[in-house]
Each structure stands twice: as structure tokens, then as C-alpha cells.
Amino acid sequence: AVRGQTAPTSTVYEFAAPVGESHFGTFPWYGIEDESRFIETICAHSRLYSVRSIGRTAEDRPINCLSIGDESKPNVVVLARMHAAESAGSWAVEGAAEYLLGDEARPLLEQYRFHLFISVNPDGVANGIKLTRMGPVEEYDMVRGGMTSADPTIVALREELFALEPACLISHHSYLWSVPFLGIFERQV
Predict the structure, then answer these.
(1) What are the angstrom distances between the C-alpha of 123 and each of 4, 74, 133, 147, 182?
(2) Could you give the count of Cα atoms lying within 13 Å of 31 in the half-sphere of its Cβ?
(3) What gap in Å lies between CA 126 and CA 60, rounded to an integer?
(4) How far apart are CA 75 and CA 63, in angstroms?
(5) How far apart are CA 12 and CA 123, in angstroms?
């Protein structure tokens, strides 16, 4: 890990890159295969979780949801990866899933049912792009197109959120932001 010097509007990283092609990211990548591995692992070790797909993306990938808790309880939705480059969110949701299996979380599970989305934008993650696919931001960005887009990924999330009527919606983006962000999509919902 390389630590950067952080200022209010930027971070500067200094490191020696080896000869040849190098890739640099400001956080560890979390890919589709990491999500599949985690879902398989957590479901194999705990019968408390159920996994389901809320729909399919334009490239026919499942949009997976891990659920834990009593169906009669109010819903809490925790999601990540509206934007593919924000892999910190996937790590955070993975950590939340593990936390909910522990004894400390038992009071939370007595009050709420949790729905965890490690990646709500599988095509963006698979293709390494911010949007669900290349095109107009108003149509393929999950925040900007959230209420109006006809993109199958965005429609599936929108319909799921309206069906769940969450008591709380936690949307993980990037740990580099210094202030809380309430997106257009969340504000309208």
C-alpha cells in the first residue's frame, strides 16, 4: 500500500514504478469474481443469509442481493458500486455482511431485515466504467438516471427500492470523500 499526502481537494502519491506496464488505483480493486467468491463463502458458512437476484443487467449479469433477518421487520438496504471505480463500497458491504453474523449485531437483527448489495452495477464493474454502459450520463449513471432511466440495471434497483420501502438506505461510494453526499436518486426516493 502506498499512502498519499492528502489535501482538501487532492491526494499526491509518490512511488517508483517498475519498467513496463503498471496499473495504479487509489484503492484495492474488488471485481465480479470477488463478489461471487464472497457470496459463496458467506452462504456456505451461514444459513442466516439468503441470496437472490433482483434482475439482470444489459449484459445479462445477475444483480445479487444478500438478505439477513426476519421478513416481518423493517428493511435496511446497504448498497455499493453505483460507480465501478468506488470499490471501497464493496469492501464495506462485505464487512457489514460479516458483522451482521456476529453477536454484537444481534440487537440490530431483532429490529431490522438487511438487504446487502455488494455491487448494484455489475456491468460497470466488469467493464471498468463508471456508468452501467457507455452513453449519456442521464441514462446510464445510477445517480443521475435513477428516477428516469430505462437501463435494466437501474430499473431493477429502482423497482427493488420501491418494493422494499427501506427504513434506511446506506449507499457506499468512496472513502476518499470528505463530506457526506446525498445523491439525486436517494433524495427523490
Answers:
(1) 30, 30, 7, 19, 23
(2) 4
(3) 12
(4) 18
(5) 30
Quote the CA–CA distance of 166 and 146 in Å, as a whole number.
16
Beta-carbon contacts of 47 under 8 Å, excluding residues fewer than 6 positions away, are: none
Question: For residue 18, what are the contacts with CB-CB under 8 A and spacing of at least 6?
Answer: none
Residue 90: CB atoms within 10 Å: 26
Task: Give the E-state strand segments of 104-144 in sequence order.
Answer: 113-117
Amino acid at 11: T
Residue indicated by cell numbers 502519491: 13
Are 27 and 13 within 8 A, CB to CB?
Answer: no
What do you get for the CA distance between the two ends of the chain, in Å? 38
Q: What is the pTM of this model?
A: 0.80
> Tens-of-pLDDT digits for all 189 residues of the chain?
667 777 766 678 888 888 988 766 666 678 899 999 999 999 998 889 999 999 999 999 999 999 999 999 999 999 999 888 788 889 899 999 999 999 999 999 999 999 999 999 999 999 888 888 888 888 888 888 888 899 999 999 999 999 999 999 998 876 554 444 444 444 444
